[in-house]
Recover the amino acids of this structure.
């Protein structure tokens, strides 16, 4: 089996900033409620750029940072719950924009865990020799499926994209372990968004249905606090390191109180979790790579640092990756 490492990251968020006070003009809410219950102060909302555009901009930064030619990329996987279209995939749209003619491209649906799942797929393709260089992306334009009349959900989400280039390596093993899992029981009651209903000339009364995000906040809250410690425990299995050796945990940015509660369960300081939720809100599949690239840009990561990425979301889906940073 080959080793796999991250050789570059990138991210992009739309320039329009929407503050909590801006939202108080749309729904009955206020800055105090949103920031104290979630930790969110503002989020980025697209004024026209769709998921493939955000993905392409994140991908171009990752390609530049990795110092590779787009023709070297032989796999593109996009984790998204808000693609531009059913067909073609977001990954194919990105491929055309960046000129990665040699890549196999597809999207995966794992909601907020989308980036961890995409990272796992890229890693397994490289380990088995199916490909050498993979572009993995987490990207969302959730603002197009959010119910802007529902104050309990519309204040939580933001738009954005993050990307990483993975490459096979003979000597250095950057992706030390990955764990993923799912639980489909009663999942739509936790968090859901319908696609198109079944309708054709052979059905008398076709169902009318809108594609909008619905959520049971309290259940998701409880799920998040339990599943983060479980995923972190799982990535340490058969590994020669413990939580003490970890410099940062980069979690899915859903709610500051979920992170505080998970930190308590893990008996670690909340500061070990890198957070940018206050500025971006919950960007679903984009949140982890957006945070990771911000850390790389700000010089927080050095060769040899051990970090954990951990995500959870609709499906239900969950997962984590234990990574040794290999970029100087
Ligand atoms: N502004 C003001 N008041 C509000 C708002 C708002 N935006 N939203 C709800 N309220 C009101 C409710 O109507 C309710 O009022 P009532 O007591 O008069 O009935 C009150 O605030 C309390 O509402 P709750 O839903 O009980 O609030 P709670 O403390 O549970 O917080 C929240 C809600 C922030 C959504 C919390 O449950 C949470 O963070 N859950 C996690 C969900 C999450 O992170 N989802 C992200 C997507 S899922 C994912 O990423 C995996």
């Amino acid at each position: 089996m080959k080793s796999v490492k991250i050789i570059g990251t990138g991210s992009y968020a739309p320039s329009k900033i929407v503050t909590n006070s801006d939202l108080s003009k749309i729904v009955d809410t206020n800055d105090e409620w949103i920031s104290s219950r979630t930790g969110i102060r503002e989020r980025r909302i697209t004024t026209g750029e769709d998921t493939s555009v955000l993905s392409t901009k994140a991908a171009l930064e990752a390609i530049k940072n990795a110092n590779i030619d787009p023709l070297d990329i032989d796999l593109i996987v996009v984790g998204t719950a808000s693609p531009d279209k059913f067909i073609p995939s977001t990954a194919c749209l990105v491929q055309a924009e960046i000129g990665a003619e040699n890549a196999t491209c597809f999207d995966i649906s794992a909601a907020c865990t989308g980036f961890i799942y995409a990272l796992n797929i890229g890693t397994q393709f490289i380990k088995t020799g199916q490909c050498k260089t993979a572009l993995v992306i987490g990207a969302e334009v959730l603002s197009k499926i959010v119910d802007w009349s529902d104050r309990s959900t519309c204040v939580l989400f933001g738009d954005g994209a993050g990307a990483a280039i993975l490459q096979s390596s003979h000597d250095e093993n950057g992706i030390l372990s990955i764990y993923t899992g799912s639980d489909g029981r009663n999942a739509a009651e936790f968090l859901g968004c319908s696609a198109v209903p079944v309708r054709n000339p052979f059905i008398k009364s076709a169902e009318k249905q809108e594609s909008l995000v619905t959520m049971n906040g309290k259940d998701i809250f409880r799920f998040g606090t339990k599943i983060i410690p479980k995923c972190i425990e799982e990535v340490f299995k058969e590994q020669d390191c413990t939580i003490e050796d970890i410099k940062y945990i980069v979690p899915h940015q859903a709610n500051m109180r979920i992170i505080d509660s998970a930190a308590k369960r893990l008996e670690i300081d909340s500061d070990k979790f890198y957070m940018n939720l206050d500025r971006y809100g919950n960007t679903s599949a984009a949140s982890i790579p957006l945070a990771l690239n911000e850390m790389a840009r700000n010089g927080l990561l050095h060769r040899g640092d051990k970090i954990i990425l951990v995500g959870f979301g609709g499906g239900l889906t969950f997962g984590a990756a234990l990574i040794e940073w290999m970029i100087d």
